[in-house]
Each structure stands twice: as C-alpha cells, then as structure tokens.
Amino acid sequence: MASETGTKEMYVGALEHFGSLVHQVPGDAWTAPTPCTEWDVRALVHHLVSEIAWTVPLLGGRSVTDVGDSLSGDLLGEDPVASWDTTAADALAAVNTEGALELVIHLSRRDITSADYVFEVFNDLAIHGWDLARAIGADETIDPAYVAVIHERISPVIADLKASGQYGDEVIPPDGADAQTRLLAMFGRIA
Hints:
This protein has helices spanning 4-24, 41-59, 64-67, 80-96, 114-136, 144-154, 158-163, 179-186, and strands at 104-106, 111-113.
C-alpha cells in the first residue's frame, strides 16, 4: 500500500498530468465523446474539476453537510482551462497543507481517512486522464507505478465497486495484455 508521502506524490503527478491534458484539448473538442459514454470532454473535465474542488473544504475540516450545494452547478464557466488551473492550484495547496493526510474526512456515505480520500481522487485523475487522452488523441500512457498501485488497492474491492454501479461493465482483457490494459479492463474500459 502506498505511504501517505507516496499517495501525495502520486496525487500531485496525476493532477499535473490531467492538467496538461486539459491544456491540450482543441477548442472544437469540448463536445467530443469520451470512453465515459455519458460524458463529452467538457462533462469529463467538469467531473474532475468538481472532484478536486471538494478537496479544499474536506481537507480543511469541513463535512459534506457543511459544504452543502456550494460546489454545485457549472464550475467550468466560459473558460474551462482557466477553471481547471485555478481549482487545481487550490486543491494542490490543500493537499500540501501540513497534516492534510492525517485527518478523518466525513463524506455523506462514510468516514474515511484523508489519505484514502486523496488516493481515491488520485485514482480518478489517473483513470479519467486516460479517458481524456483517448478522447482528444493524446498519449494514453498511465504511469506504470500508478497502474501497479491502483491495481493493488482496487483489485480486492472491485466486485463491490462494480456492484455499486461506480465502474463500467466487465471487460475481459485479451490474453497477454499489458498491465495498463488489464487495469483499464477492470474499470470497464477497452484499451
């Protein structure tokens, strides 16, 4: 299992990588389809902006109830790239705050350690980074260290996650598939 330091480093790396992909989105590609069939590129980026926006209040000691609907609605506005940049900078500052990974986060469905919460956001950044790369024709490579850690952490609970409807349908990777292809299949993606 990744240490808190390792989790923070992976989060930062995945945040930066996703941000670099946001900056590569061509102006006419915001409505392009993604592997997440219910989302186009704009909706996918909005999902991640929303997710990282939550790190600020949650790592600041506020609960989901405290935040209420203040992070609802369109968080991208007229300039999705600028919205990403601002939100990512705020999220990065929150994660880098002393003691940020030593808290208990009060989510609506359960309490979770802040280190586990940051890992969950890292996981989404890494997997959805692949989705975004695929949608815009960018390099789809996920850092092999991320692939290994995500596989290690998610494999034991994948059946529960799939049962909750959080992840895509079962995909069987081809024989001899590489680690990234096997990981993406676990998340219901065909590489």
